[in-house]
Amino acid sequence: MSRLMESDSPMRAAFTRYLSDGFREALRRNPEQGAGPIDSGGSLLLELANDPAPEVRAQVVVAAIFLKGPFAAELIFAAMQTEQDPQLTYVINEARGIVNLDAAIRDNLARGEKLSRNAEAYALSNASVEDLLKMEKTEGVYRAILTRENAAVETLQTALTGLAKLRHVAEIEELFTLIEELNAKASVNVLNSLSRLLANQPADQLAKVRDRIATLATTAKSGETRRVAIAAWISADNNGDGVFTAVEKKQLKLEDVLRSVELVSSVDAKRSLMGPIVAIIPKLEGSIATYFDNGGGDGLTMSWSGPGVQKEQIPASVLVSAAEQTIQDLGIQAMMNIPGHETAKTEILASLLKKRESVNSSLQSLVTIPVEMWPKEQLGNLAEAAVSYIASREPRDRNSEQARLALTIANGVRSRLDATGKTRFEKRLAEVVVPLITLGTVPERMIYDRETVAVQAGRPVEFRLTNSDNMPHNFAVVLPGTMAEVGEQAEATGRDADAAARNFIPKSDKILVASKLVQPGQTDSIFFEVPQEPGIYPYVCTYPGHWRRMYGALYVVADLTAYEADSAGYLADHPLEMRDDLLKYLGRNTDWQLDDLKGDVMHLSHRANNFAVGQQLFKAAACVGCHKLGGQGNNIGPDLSKLPSEYSKLDVLDHILNPSKKIDRKYQSNVIELTSGKVLTGLIVEEGDTELKLIDNRRP
Predict the structure, then answer these.
(1) d(Cα 52, Cα 81) in Å, to the nearest integer?
(2) With contact defined as beta carbons under 8 Å apart, do 52 and 79 qualify?
(3) Residue 686 belongs to what H/E stretch?
(4) Strand pairing partners for 553?
(5) What is the distance between the alpha carbons of residues 323 and 409, in angstroms, rounded to a whole number?
(6) Separation between Cα atoms, residue 338 and residue 260, nearest integer Å
(7) Which whole-number Å values give the CA distances from 496 to 48, 468, 544, in the listed order?
(8) Is the dihedral of CA 492, 496, 499, 500 positive or negative?
(9) Band of residue 348 on the pLDDT scale cut at 50, 70, 90
(10) How far apart are CA 366 and CA 330, in angstroms?
(11) pLDDT of res. 68
(12) More confident residue, 398 or 25
């Protein structure tokens, strides 16, 4: 055996293959034998895993693939610690896909056993932080934790404390030595993690390495590391004088300084930045070239060229690493990260809004300041800025996120005014605000959650329909007296090829405005120029089978304020004609239960009631939209004249109140995937050998 081990590498590789084949045959005969090394051959394989020749080590890794248990992992651990060549690297990668090395480490730790030298080396380079924390706490383990990407700051601090104690040095010295060591070679994420740990160090400790921090701030390759170092510099100095001087000398970028403010750990140092930042915000430009720098550590550069100009690099000093933020936006963000100073913040933000500078950032920042802290002398500026901003937007954009922020500010000002000022301001605000009217759907009841809505004649509004039902719905406002005409047209055209593309809204000049088809869980906004003519305008869902039940009344009035103060009195003095019969049945929003009504039907003779009355209710209650009775209606649901004979009075009432309690298969919604990959969802209305027709619920 010793002569074989001393032979040339081809012979040793052949011997290793021989051992591997022997193990493979033994495992074929006895699969359970793979739990550990097989006889004395196992120790030979472990010795060969450290052989000088990479082809021999590769054969050992191949053998490990056929073994089971921790010994196979040990062979791979050993081979991984040797010098690699392409073949060995390839075989190891293949083996790692078969033998779970991480699980082997975890199993070893769970058994409380000490890791071998090779297994520990693998764990230090590859194990998770969770597994590293279970290992014996050595310098190597602590350093491995500190160099893991995106480790929790608390875990990093524990590792730093342990490492500094083992090495008998101060924590801040150990941390800074590690950051300086890794600055030129570690990944951006590792540096960022250590930098965040640096930001959490006490100011008195940071002061001990102040000059090293300043050097790191001006040389770090990672943008986040630079910014954390700047924050640590500010905390070490307890003010921002040093960093702002460095900006003036072009040693630091102002952008990095502004972004670092939120990272400053010393509250006193952070407060000291208020004066310098407030002083520069009005002077900052709002339009600067931008790019995304992925944290600042990827070496990204930008170049430009033009007619007669050769391609040249754009200096980094004029670039801002934010996709849409301007340098003034960053100044506002920095200011808002400084605690207190609400009066000064409000003044600077009000002045920016008045000049229409950094409007979005100013609006977003102002709403975070409590209204009661707005200086009284700034209320006029805030009111003017908010109202003028809303007025500057197109009417259909006056419920955008930014416009709603401006409205929040306007309402804050309103709450601070006296009665006279409030009345005057409300009148002006009403001239620019587009009311937002929210509508919902009631699950399984096929009705809107609001049956009446009142609006001012001649003034735009925005409806926002949210569908919380389990079927699709839409929303259309129609001319008075035309709801039945529009609804019947919707049913007649509901199976047309273009119905879904039209959102199941019929082509009619009687429709004033309409939504998209709103699927369950979705929302749609509908801008509506309200007619000048007062009246009761129906709004209705025109999805097939819905219009006879899902509707409401839009009261268009000449004086909305008077109507809202006393609707009954207003309508008595200014009567509006209800020209749509179904609107007379509004008030259906009671969620009736079986126990509420069963006493009212128990006295009835089963199926001995007045057919004419039932036929009339069949239409009035919108049953005709989905069901048939006496040849009238639609075939979307069961024919009500053919109910099962065993149904009792209570059964019929129960199914009226709970229409989804039992749905016949032929009336259920179906999901159909075409060979093209397209998916259709809807009710099958006709099925043949070669053709299938359905009412499609798909999103247009």
Answers:
(1) 12
(2) no
(3) strand 679-687
(4) 452, 538
(5) 27
(6) 11
(7) 77, 27, 11
(8) positive
(9) very high
(10) 15
(11) 65
(12) 398
- Give residue-wise pLDDT tens across range 660-672: 677 776 677 777 8
Beta bridge partners of 525: 464
CA atoms of 263 and 175, how far apart (whole Å):
17
Q: Give exposure, 657-691, as e/b (b: 16+ Cβ within 10 Å).
A: bebeeeeeeeeeeeeeeeeeeeebbbbbbeeeeee
Nearest alpha-carbon partner for 447 in 622, 667, 597, 593: 622
- Residue 518 DSSP symbol: B
Q: CA-CA distance, 361 to 358, in Å (whole number)? A: 6
Nearest to 183 by CA among 222, 227, 228, 232: 222
| Residue in the block written with tokens 């937007």 | 393
Task: Give the tens place of pLDDT for each residue, 86-112.
Answer: 888 888 888 888 888 888 888 888 888
Distance CA 85, CA 674 (A): 51
- Left if phi > 0, otherwise alpha if psi is -120 to 50, otherwise beta: which for 86? alpha
* Pairing label, strands 476-478, 447-448: unpaired
Tell me the two tokens of residue 533. 């003519």
Q: How far apart are CA 169 and CA 173, in angstroms?
A: 7
**What is the rounded CA–CA span in Å between residue 120 and residue 111?**
15
pLDDT digits 0-9 by tens, 138-196 = 888 888 888 777 778 788 888 888 888 888 888 888 887 777 777 666 555 666 667 67
CB 505 within 8 A of CB 496: no
The 3-state DSSP class for residue 645 equals: coil
In single-letter form, the type of residue at position 491 comes to E
Query: CA torsion sign, 255 to 259 to 260 to 261?
Result: positive
3-state secondary structure 612-625: HHHHHHHHHCCHHH
Task: Please name the amino acid found at residue 9.
Answer: S
Taking the model in full, what pTM does it have? 0.59
- Contact between 164 and 177 under an 8 Å Cβ cutoff? The reply is no
At 154, give phi and psi (nearest 5°): -60, -40
Environment class of 586 (CB within 10 Å of its CB; exposed 0-12, middle 13-18, buried 19+): middle
**The token pair that represents 543 in the structure block:** 């999805």
What residue has token string 């931008």?
Answer: 290
Within 81-152, residue ranges assigned H as helices are 86-96, 101-110, 117-126, 129-132, 139-146
CA-to-CA dists, residue 152 to 145, 175, 338, 449, angstroms: 10, 15, 25, 47
Could you list the beta-strand ranges (E) of 471-601.
Answer: 476-478, 511-514, 523-529, 535-540, 551-557
Please answer whether residues 340 and 271 qualify as being in contact, where contact means their C-beta atoms are separated by less than 8 angstroms.
yes
Q: At what angle do helices 171-182 and 210-219 cross, to 10 degrees?
A: 20
